[in-house]
Amino acid sequence: MVNIYDTLNKAAAGLASSQAGLSVTGNNINNVDTEGYSRQRVEIKNDNGLIITEDPKRVYSDVIAKNLRNEKSGYELYNTLENGLKSIDVYFNELEMGAGLGDSFKEYFNALSDLANTTPDNTAESLSKKEVVVEKATVLSNKINDAAKSIERQRNDSNEKIKDYTEEVNDIANEIASINKKIASVEYDDKKANELRDRRDVLLDQLSELVDITTYEDDNGMVSVYVGNNPLVEGSVSNQLILKENSENYYDIFIGNKKYGENINITNSIKAGKIKGELELRDNYYKEYADRLNNLKEALIF
Fold this sequence. Notes:
Blueprint: H1 4-30, E1 40-41, E2 44-47, E3 50-53, E4 57-58, H2 62-86, H3 102-116, H4 124-186, H5 194-210, E5 214-217, E6 223-227, E7 230-234, E8 237-238, E9 241-245, E10 251-257, E11 262-265, H6 273-301
Antiparallel strand pairs: 1-4, 2-3, 5-6, 6-7, 7-8, 9-10, 10-11
């Protein structure tokens, strides 16, 4: 004969499972527009005929998330380079009439050539052409100087952006370390810290926009974050990025290590993200344009 109490217990467990499923579905619908929210599902298992409802689990792929972050870091690098180069394009754009330096050079040398074909005396024609040469030389000189000043401003702007971005990195690293500690505490009793994990993933996504990272999760649910081979977050401890001025009075980026008490220069270890984009603009692209302009001025003076 079937035990009436077993039947009632199974029915109650089934109803509880259905209720849990409806609750999780409603929660998924309510959070459809929530940034970073991972869809959850209820897992049900049968234990000797008794239905057991486990805590809701996140529908989440760590592999896909890591790949997306890598792509995001690369995108932000090239997007930063594109925007930065557009800012000085006006001084080197030879496709638009009068925009670049080419037309000013052409007008200057045409004026010189016209003067050279004039008898070198103090006739009205000669004096007039000399005035034209001076006028064209002034225009050319001003354009070169304006371009040089613009590039210098852009280098300084990149330097300040690097400062702002490193402060963002430090803030994010601090919050990730704090969330790591909370997740380890919640999941110590086999509970699920789904909302905390969602928030941490949002922070990791934001961090990947600034700098390329690699992440590793330990058995306690805490994530370690590395920039290159250097730990930025280790469990509940965050190591800070530190800025130091170099010989050009621009910032180099160091990472502090609280465990060993040392600062490591990681300027050249950063491979992607907005910070890498600004470093490339400041130290390579803008510097190269500035050097070319200086060479051009020296050749023109000679």
